[in-house]
Amino acid sequence: MNPSSEHPFSQGLRTERVGEPCAMVIFGASGDLSHRKLLPALYNLSLSGVLPANFAVVGFAKDEFSQESYRTEMKKAVAEHSRRKPLDEEVWGDFAAGLDYVSGSFEDLASFQKLKAALERADQERGTRGNRLFYCAVPPSVMPLILKQLSAAGLVQNRGKGKPWSRIILEKPFGHDTESARELNACVHEVFAESQVYRIDHYLGKETVQNLMVFRFGNSIFEPIWNRQFVDHVQITAAEDIGVERRGAYYEEAGILRDMVQNHLMQLLSLTAMESPVAMDADAVRDEKVKVLRAIRPVLREEVQQYTVRGQYARGAYHGKAAAAYREEERVAKDSRMATFAALKLYVDNWRWEGVPFYLRTGKRLPKRVTEISVHFQRLPHALFGAMQGEAARNVLAIRIQPDEGISMRFNSKVPGEGMRVRTVNMDFRYGQAFGAEPPEAYERLLLDSMIGDATLFTRADEVDTAWRLVTEILEGWKEWPSDPSFYEAGSWGPQAAEDLIGADGRHWRRL
Amino acid sequence: MLARHALGLSEPIAVEEIGAALEERRAALAQANNDPNALRVSTLNLVAFCHEDARCADTLEVLSSMVVEHPGRLFLVHAHREAAEPVLQARVAVDGTPSALGVPPSYSELIDINALGPEVDFLPSILTSLLEADQPACAWWATAPTFGPVWRRMARVCDRMVVDSGDMDPWDLMRVVEFIRADRPEGHRDDHAALGDLNWARAKPFMALTARFFEAPEVAERFAEVQRVTVRYVPPSGHTTAIGPAMLGAWVANRLAKTARLAHVKVSPRVELLKSPRTDLHPGEIAELVLSGGGEAPLELAVVRAEGGANAVVAEPRRGAPGMASQRLRIHTHDASWLLAQELQISGRDPLYEAAFMGAIDILREARR
How far apart are CA B143 and CA A309, in angstroms? Predict the structure, then answer.
């Protein structure tokens, strides 16, 4: 995937890929994401020796910082949030030498001219060769303005392929429904070709999500049974134990479908259900993911009560402490009907998955933070060993995304003794135990990929669009749903309606 | 939270009691750490041979630090065939690494075997029986290998044999040549292990930065202009040779030749080894690699060990690469566990190493003339 790795001098030498020389511009450089994720990720890449030598970062935000004070501020942020501590002064020194800051307003073209001058300086002083990587760590409402100013200031070069290159990384949410996503896509495409756009979904940067592809397509034993003939159903759970915290205003606009389902859960579903790509390159992988999304049977607005559950957390308990209801959170309407929980039953109408339900659930203020995909295989055709009933009779393959990443297989085993008693046991692979080393943060992987020009783990416009079409239909249906969402006690696994959704099919959610 | 070495080495036991002793200590460790569900993880068999008592403590330390990233079943083998009194005994330990953010605890097992006198002959069969099934097996000669029966047997049961050519005299180097030349199909794991070399891992930071020069188009297109490859090194001590610097020079020549073949041109760079007067480096260490050439537009690219004892190498595009910044890379080449970890990442034969080793032997022969 890295063209430079083909050079004879790089062959067989290292497994790490090194980014191409470039200057990275962070819009929203004084914000939380920059402090907590982006700068620590860049520093860790530098510590790992995979940042290019010719590299610079130019922060852009409204706040007033000098170059020196920005470096000091970011040093504090990195020291606090880097996964590797303590801060290595020498590595930081080298990294910080390429760290610059431009204070400016997104409305002001002159600010973008200042940015251009800073980038030209970086080209001369840091040898960044005119390559630009723009990172939009800003609300989506600001993106069109940034795009317009980038274009007006002549900061985007070589639309499409060629060098020097310009790329843009966009943070989620990418639109709030099909129409707005299309508008935003159109805006982006006025300035950048699709091949220059890197829409980030940090779930895709997680080791276990990447391992899902290795697990499926790097082993010969799973693919033959990965289909309707052997799989009874699939469950995907993304549970968070926290509430909306201080993001009440955002959540009142977004809700669980936009926050989790349109992006993360749809990505997990498509990786679970996709066919083998013809190659491990960006378009081949994304082509297969899009095919899955297109094959998902849409839940029509009049069907939402049959195929979906919307919930909202009521008062309850969280890790032994009383937890407020969603409606009692800061900047949340007292009569809000916004969903903080969703459960969906979806079908992928293709040859492989016809008739196999995919149950998805996600929510806030659930008992624990856990993301998992579980593939539930069909029951035995004949109960040879007596009363093996219900779910106990099934083999389950569980892929844990977070925390405690790993894979476990549930199978049946004879209980030692004279009788023929059978009990389920787990065969467990824990990622961290087997490999020991701490995995890199998702942002490290994704930032490095964007420097290399590998878009495999980023979402393409048609993926975003297809996912939005599915979710927007449900959103519309929910809007017309006359009653309040189903309330669930904070610290529980969601409303009873979620149990009923899967229970009606004679199944139940996996206990996590 | 688990503690490292929660249960250190046991009292000496007979080798046939190893399995039971490990079982007992695993259970005790799980109980002590209140972690009854913790799984024993085996991803690797690593057998370390140490024939010098003075270096065994260091070797044990290396194995202990390896378990974090390479949990598995580790062996430390002391063998002295010349000893008068026959001894064959073992000690075992179960080691838990602490749980850290995002990293669950992992367990490894250490088996320390002491074989003296004729009992040394039993080692291969003991080790073979104790290797975890279906996991990679690596034998590491922490001291210069004897190339005797134990070596030969281990070469049959292990996937990889790791030596340190920096510790070897010229005779031992010839044994390595014989081993590399043994007739094995490329990449095929037959009855013969692949060879790894910590001295090769030591040169890798220099190679990594050299490779980055050639990733820049303006340098890559001038590869054929490289006429001299100069490796400066601190003279090695004792009976050892400059095989490490020679391997680095041979690797550069080999890569230039490969690039030239792809471009259908010819290159013939001269590789020279020069002694460095630097006193901040250890004997045998590489001080500098310089690629130079060019006609009217001179080209000079250097990778240099940072001054003042800093553990870093610095890429210095001195002439002919105006747009390129210098780059510093931290190194861990004094850390044997890091060097060993580099070798453990490779599966199967390493043709680049083998070619560089053979090329280095030629360079050393040439230098002697």
Answer: 66
Contacts with A432 from chain B: Cβ below 8 Å: 102-104, 106
Residue with tokens 């378990």: B67
How many other β-carbons are positioned within 10 Å of the β-carbon of residue B318?
Answer: 15
SS3 assignment for A238-284: EECCCCCCCCHHHHHHHHHHHHHHHHHHHHHHHHHHCCCCCCCCHHH
Q: What is the ipTM of this complex?
A: 0.79
CB contact under 8 A, A433 and B258: no
Q: List, as one string, the DSSP characters of A433-487.
A: HHH-SPPPPHHHHHHHHHHHT--TTSB-HHHHHHHHHHHHHHHHHHHH--SPPEE
Q: Select which of A35, A202, A233, A264 is catalytic.
A: A264
Question: For chain B, what is the mean pLDDT?
Answer: 85
Among A54, A435, A439, the residue with its CB nearest the CB of B325 is A54
Residue pLDDT, tens place only, A470-506: 999 999 999 998 889 999 999 899 999 999 999 999 9
- Name, in order, each residue with C-beta under 8 angstroms of B95's C-beta and a sequence gap of 6 or more: B4, B5, B6, B7, B64, B67, B107, B108, B109, B110
d(CA A372, CA A366): 14
Residue B222 DSSP class:
T
The answer to whether B325 contacts A126, with C-beta atoms less than 8 Å apart, is yes
> Which residue among B71, B327, B330 places its CB closest to the CB of A433?
B71
d(CA B85, CA A373): 60
Return the structure tokens found at B14.
Answer: 């007979």
- Where do we find the tokens 């989620």? A172
Q: Which amino acid is at A193?
A: A
Measured between beta carbons, the chain A residues lying within 8 angstroms of B69 are: 435-437
- Which candidate in A2, A9, A46 is best for mutational testing of the B interface (most B CBs within 10 A)? A9
- Determine phi and psi for A183, rounding to 5 degrees: -60, -45
Task: Give A8→chain B minimum CA distance, Å.
Answer: 6
pTM: 0.79
**A7 part of contact set with chain B, CB < 8 Å:** yes
One-letter amino acid at A448 equals L
Residue corresponding to tokens 């070469």: B155
Q: Is residue A233 flagged as an active site residue?
A: no
Which chain B residues are Cβ-neighbours of A91 within 8 angstroms?
Answer: 330
**What is the spatial distance between Cα A495 and Cα B146, in angstroms, rounded to a whole number?**
70
